[in-house]
Structures are given as structure tokens and as C-alpha cells.
Amino acid sequence: xxxxxxxxxxxxxxxxxxxxxxxxxxxxxxxxxxxxxxxxxxxxxxxxxxxxxxxxxxxxxxxxxxxxxxxxxxxxxxxxxxxxxxxxxxxxxxxxxxxxxxxxxxxxxxxxxxxxxxxxxxxxxxxxxxxxxxxxxxxxxxxxxxxxxxxxxxxxxxxxxxxxxxxxxxxxxxxxxxxxxxxxxxxxxxxxxxxxxxxxxxxxxxxxxxxxxxxxxxxxxxxxxxxxxxxxxxxxxxxxxxxxxxxxxxxxxxxxxxxxxxxxxxxxxxxxxxxxxxxxxxxxxxxxxxxxxxxxxxxxxxxxxxxxxxxxxxxxxxxxxxxxxxxxxxxxxxxxxxxxxxxxxxxxxxxxxxxxxxxxxxxxxxxxxxxxxxxxxxxxxxxxxxxxxxxxxxxxxxxxxxxxxxxxxxxxxxxxxxxxxxxxxxxxxxxxxxxxxxxxxxxxxxxxxxxxxxxxxxxxxxxxxxxxxxxxxxxxxxxxxxxxxxxxxxxxxxxxxxxxxxxxxxxxxxxxxxxxxxxxxxxxxxxxxxxxxxxxxxxxxxxxxxxxxxxxxxxxxxxxxxxxxxxxxxxxxxxxxxxxxxxxxxxxxxxxxxxxxxxxxxxxxxxxxxxxxxxxxxxxxxxxxxxxxxxxxxxxxxxxxxxxxxxxxxxxxxxxxxxxxxxxxxxxxxxxxxxxxxxxxxxxxxxxxxxxxxxxxxxxxxxxxxxxxxxxxxxxxxxxxxxxxxxxxxxxxxxxxxxxxxxxxxxxxxxxxxxxxxxxxxxxxxxxxxxxxxxxxxx
Length: 779
Description:
By secondary structure, this protein is α/β, with parallel strands linked by helices. A hairpin with a 2-residue loop joins strand 24 and strand 25 (735-736). The termini are far apart. It has four domains: 17-227 and 364-398, 3-Layer(aba) Sandwich (Rossmann fold); 242-353, Alpha-Beta Complex (Pre-protein croslinking domain of SecA), CATH 3.90.1440; 408-554, Rossmann fold (3-Layer(aba) Sandwich), CATH 3.40.50; 603-766, Helical scaffold and wing domains of SecA (Orthogonal Bundle), CATH 1.10.3060. Helix 12 (242-249) crosses helix 14 (291-306). Strands 16, 17, 18, 19, 20, 21, 22 and 23 form an eight-stranded mixed sheet that branches. Strands 3-4-2-5-14-1-15 form a seven-stranded parallel sheet, with helices on both faces. It is built from 30 helices and 26 strands.
């Protein structure tokens, strides 16, 4: 029977869970973990810490964990958590810990204790002598989890810290000096970029990366993988063309401009071009003399036609703030490329932000690729198992829930129009609310959440709204979403990091709410990814709680219009309610979602294809930069190239160490400047490269042909420029006046994420370029 059971489990995993790691090995270790409990319970705290220290001595420096070491780590971790947190880790949490310790992405449902499983794994890696970064999706979770799990780490003799935006350089250095460091993916990435620009070894805050444990792994490794993190230096004020913004504001869709069905491209019609040219004093936009104005018009039109306030961005505190669509919250450090950012600021008539040159950048995927060992945890990994394998060589381990999931997932209800759908949602909320059950409504964006809240208020159904406008209060709002009679309207729930407990945060009315049926989740539309649907559903049915979930959809939702607008014939709606029960409507919804997921995957692949060359070049350059930073190479080169000037400089600077630092700063300035120039060059190449497809050339090959020769000039050119700087410099009693010889680093730098998609498929880019050129000629 046992053999049949094991075979059955294996077959279910093969059939139902593609990309799933076999758990039999880990399950076989659980009895041994439990057998150690009585022995460890007899130890006092000091003895338990000493026992962990002996394990550290035994496994320190090992390449991987043996089964006996996995058993010991889990047993020590379970006892440490029981003593410090009052929580005895479930067997399934220990399965998650072992999955992480063996380099997998573990899928654990919402409320199953990923935070503790991740902490025990991080402690295990630390005991093996590895520095661990626990990568979170936001700063709040980084600090919360580090402080929450701190007592567990302390009892195991492992040091822990966290980084957040408010931290100084010294605080960051101290945090990264701990064995385990928690940090938001962007914050860790920005510290990497800052370290790449230092000119003295003492200014480095991070050490060599070793292990990353990624929370919300599918979101970080897939959804945000192509997002570039950027370090910029101030150049000047980012002034947009205010005159053009005013003109474009008057243009009308269908008359003066058109957009494609995906909402990703906009262009002037002949009538629109005529209006703009006349308003600008009779310029010819399509003549060479009007090319600058045409660029300004195009970017202003993009801001006007394709970016929507309260959907793509907010205007708050006199600033344009982008909304992270995957999370439904403000992306604090995110911005569009400078021209578009300025155009949106002009559109909303707010003060323009500074414009800067990109000093360096790194995608999230490249950031995680720096770590020799990567593991992750999330509630929805199976859906992206193939991508995790393709891009990261990671396999998924599906951890069963501690208590079987009894949530009732109801069939989608589909309507002909969004207005009919909204009426049905309002009625659903009213009906369920009358029973006293708590309700969580997941909306697509800020505008929709506020529109729904307004309708509910008019219908005497008050609710609490959680969206990008008040995401600072998210933990408190979510914690009370399980109270009897609560109605919570939220944008995307991914990465919120707080469980919804039946009965509210204190659980006072838990049993009553459970008897009523638990939390009822309502989705106001299907998301572009089935994983996001799953994340919303997963807020109900936590740890065996009763609950239910239902999605409402319309065949005129953006998902369908953008990805599968051609509906099959013969789909009829109820004449009174507009509801559609024809199975063809459900198939159309599923098809639209699969198309959207396919587009996203193609974008990810193209990003990876283009950026991996850039990352290889950056890695090669960083190896040289580190040699300059940590040795006297710059001084040796300058002495050889300019012996007389070098001797004069050496005479003035009696400190040899000071001499090396001056030479280092000159050499690194030119090296960094040339890399910045190279990035700008690659941006220009990338934006035009798809036109090469018209000549039957492969764009990616052409990109490589353009990028590689230019890169190989950088190191030699930086040495040459450094020698020329020394040759032309006037040497004073203080040595070199670096600013006088043009060695001036940006006095202001800032970091941000680029909200951009320059990596459409080659075919799509080509079509867009050709279509644009043809329209220009027609005009």
C-alpha cells in the first residue's frame, strides 16, 4: 500500500504539477527531526546555542547539506521558534525549509508560514558559512521579518540585520556585515549600483554575494525580472515642451490621433498633424527641420493617449508617482525614461523633476544571477515553473498545506458589458454582506477601486479601500479584513505580506465568522496572469479555514479587448442582466489570459537576450574596475605613460597612499564615464535595431555586432584619457585639482526603476516602425 501511495503521489505531481520536485526525500527525514525534539527540549538556551555552534563547526564551508545536517537544522530551528515565538513549526514548514536549503523555489499557500520556513533556511545557510540575503518585495516586509524572526536567529547564534531607504552608508555596511540581511529587491540592487561607483575600497557597503532567498519569488524573478534598476547623475532640469503639451491636450481620439488595440502605440492622423503644425506656427513636422518637434509631439501624445491617471500613475504631493501594476501600490522609486516622465509631468502641470544621465543599471534578473546559490518561496510558483527553469535553472517544490484547503472556488460569472458586471458585483456584495461574512474585493487599479467604493457607499454598503493612495496603512487594513461584516476593496493583493485572519487581528469572532462561511473573495476582472488570480483567491481558505472565491468578468474587459477581441459568433447574453452562460465566453476569457501571459513571456525572453550581453560586458569591466580599486594599477599605468608628470606629482604628494588614490580617482572617473557613454550608445542601437529586420538581418545579431567592438575600446580608452588628464593637469602643492581637469562626478545622484518596455518582439517592433513610417509619408 505504501508503495502504491508513493507512486500515486508521483503520478499526481507529474500530471497536475509540472516542474514539481519530488518531496519523498524530505518527507523521509521528518520522523528523525521529531525524534530529536525531547533531547533538544531538555537543553537550556545557552546549551541550544552551543549545539548550533557545534553544527556550524561541523558543516562550515561545505558545498551542500547532508541529510543528517538537514535534520539537525530543522530540529534546532523548530525548537528555537517554539521558545522564542511560541510557534512549533509544522512538518510542512520544515519541508519548505529543506526545499530552500537544497536550492529550490518552494510553493506554500498563503498563511502556511513561509516567513518562518525562510528564516530557518537562512539560518541553515549561515551555519554553513554563507552570507545570506533574504530578498523581499518591499521595505516594510524586510524590516518586519528581520525583527520578527530576530529572536530565532539569536538563539541559533546567527546575526541578522536589514536595509531600508533611510539607512546611512554606515548603517548599510553594518547590516550587510551580518550573516543574514533582509532587504527589498530594489534596495539591495541600488546598493550594488552604488558600490559599482565608489572610488575607495572603504566606501563599499556590500560583500561578495553568496546566497539569496527570494520571497514572493514568482513576482520578483518573473514579473519584475526585466525591470531595470537605474543609477543616474544630475545633468539639468528636465523641461518638457509645455507648448506641445497644451496642443496635444486638445487632440481627440479618432479625429486627430489613433491608437492600436493593445494601447501601446499612438500616432497622429493627417488631420491631427495639420492641427499640430498650424498650432506650432506652420512648421513641417516631417521635414528634417521639424524632427525635434516631432519627437516632442510623439512623446506628449504617448503621455496623453496611453497613460491614464489613477491607473498608470497618481498625482500626489505635487508629483507624478507611478503605480506598480503587479502590486497595486505606488512604486516609490519608479519612473519612465526621462522624455516620457517629463511629458507626463507637463500633462499634469506639475513641477518637472531633474533629468540625468544613466551612470549604471542592472535588471532584477541580472541582480539575482550574481548569487551562486538562489532559492525562493511563493504561493504561486507552478504556473511559472518553466520560466524559473529557463531563466534561473530553478525547480519548484510544491509543499502541501498543513490542513487541506476547503475553500470553494466558484465558477466565473461573465457579462456582456462592464456596467452590467458592476451591477452584479454590487448585488453579490450586498447579498453576502447581509449574512455577516467578511468580503475582500480585488480590483484592477486605483480608479476602479475608488469607483466601486463610491457606488457601495451610495448603496449604504460602506467599505475600507486599500490602494496606492493609502498603501502605507496596508498592514492594518488587511489585518482587519476578516472581521465579521467587513468589506475591503483592494487593488492587487500580491506581496501584501499580512494574513487575513478570520475574526480580525485579535481573532475575537473567529468561530462565528467560520460558521458563517469564512472570507468571501470577489475578483472584479480576470488579471493578465492566472497567478494573480490565484494570489487573490489564496487570501481565503487560510490554514484550512472555510471560505469562497468568485471572479466576475466582461467580454469588454481590457484583458479581452487587448488580447482576444474577436469573439466567436452566437454568444448571447441574458437580456435583463447581461450575464452570459455560454461556455464559449469562458473559453474566450481563458484564451485572452493565455495570450497575455505569452506576450509577457516573450518580453521577458527578449529582455534576457539583449541584456545578458550587457551584463557579461559589465562583469568583465567590473573585474578590471575592482583591480583598479584595490591595487596600485592606476598609478603604475600613469607612471609608465607620463613619467615626468608622475614624478612631479609624486614629489608634491609625500604620502604614497594619497598618490595612489589620486591616480585611482582619475582612472575610475574615465572608466565609469565611458561605461555610461556605452550604455547611452546601446540604448540608441536598441531603439533602432529592429529596422534591420527590414533588410532580413537578425536584430539581435546586429545588436551584438554593434555592441561588442565598442565595448572592447573602453579599458584602453580609459587608460589613455587618464594619461591625457595627467599630461594636461597643473600640479600644485596639493597635488591635482581634480575638478579643474574635468574629473567631476555628479554632485547629485538618484536611483529609480524604469517603467518601460523597449523589448517587444522583433516582429512587433518592425511592424510598429514600418506602420509609423507609412503614416508619416501619408501625412
